[in-house]
Amino acid sequence: MFRTMVIAGVGLIGGSLALAARERGLVERVVGYGRNEKTLRRGKKIGILDRYFLRAEDFPEDTDFLVLATPVSAIAPLTRSFLPRLHPGCLISDVGSVKRRVVADMERLLKGGPPFVGAHPIAGSDQWGPDAARADLFVRRRCIITPTRKSDPGAVKRLRTFWRRAGAKVELMDAALHDRVLGVVSHLPHVAASALVNALESTRVGSLDLAGYCGSGFKDTTRIAAGRPELWRDICLLNREAVLKGLQEHARGIERFMDCIRRNDGPRLEREFERALATRKRIE
């Protein structure tokens, strides 16, 4: 589908997308960009990249597909640095977990220039870096594409086809709606898991190291707290309204549990657990 794909940010998502595109014959070559040459060298060594570059002025002029897999706050500034060497037909997309602000910034930056269509594959891991990348990461996973009235229909169609051929289940969604949904199902859980780990770190029970007593329940519940801090910093700040709303609802839920325990109200406490059980069973 594409001659030269540039991946800016060769980590779990960017690296996996490059591997999927290679394995399925969607690109002729993959070129990486990033701040850390050690990471890029590793990406080339393990077969994710054909080559890489470190300076914006070395952006390949024959690029027809640019994927931004950086922290979301870097997407528009990085694109701006590439603009002098971007040809008008180059399709630009991203894989960020926040869409409304990113889409607005990119459309403002690129008006009259290369087409941009936002995307967010709902797939991941607590592992990061090129060694965590795998070609099947997106298979049967949902990828949300967020076109607007300004989006080029041909670009939307190409991106939709690309993600389908990469193995994903593609869904089109309004960017603001995407952020409200992900604020609850992705961003809130990460903050909650991080807060739970921080509670463990700040709680003292004699001289014991509580981390040594954590079983599979605690580890499973908090696995996502191992994500990259700078990435989650940006997500929370760029989607602050949805994250705050989710945290407020979560706090109300914690307060209900606290009230049940304070009042020694077993039946009501059991109903809270039953409610959680019923909802959890609906999650695939």
Question: What key attributes describe this structure?
Answer:
284 residues, alpha/beta, Rossmann fold, 6-phosphogluconate dehydrogenase C-terminal fold, eight-stranded mixed beta sheet, 8 strands, globular
Concise overview:
With 284 residues, this protein is α/β, with parallel strands linked by helices. It folds into two domains: 2-173, NAD(P)-binding Rossmann-like Domain (Rossmann fold); 177-281, 6-phosphogluconate dehydrogenase C-terminal like domain (6-phosphogluconate dehydrogenase C-terminal fold).
Describe the overall structure.
This protein is an alpha/beta fold. The chain has 2 domains: 2-173, NAD(P)-binding Rossmann-like Domain (Rossmann fold, 3-Layer(aba) Sandwich), CATH 3.40.50.720; 177-281, 6-phosphogluconate dehydrogenase C-terminal fold (Orthogonal Bundle). 48% of the residues lie in helices and 14% in strands. The chain has an 8-stranded mixed β-sheet, sandwiched between helices. Strand 2, helix 2 (37-45) and strand 3 (51-53) form a beta-alpha-beta unit. Helix 3 (75-82) packs parallel to helix 4 (100-110), helix 6 (175-202) crosses helix 9 (240-262) and helix 9 packs antiparallel against helix 10. The relative contact order is 0.11.
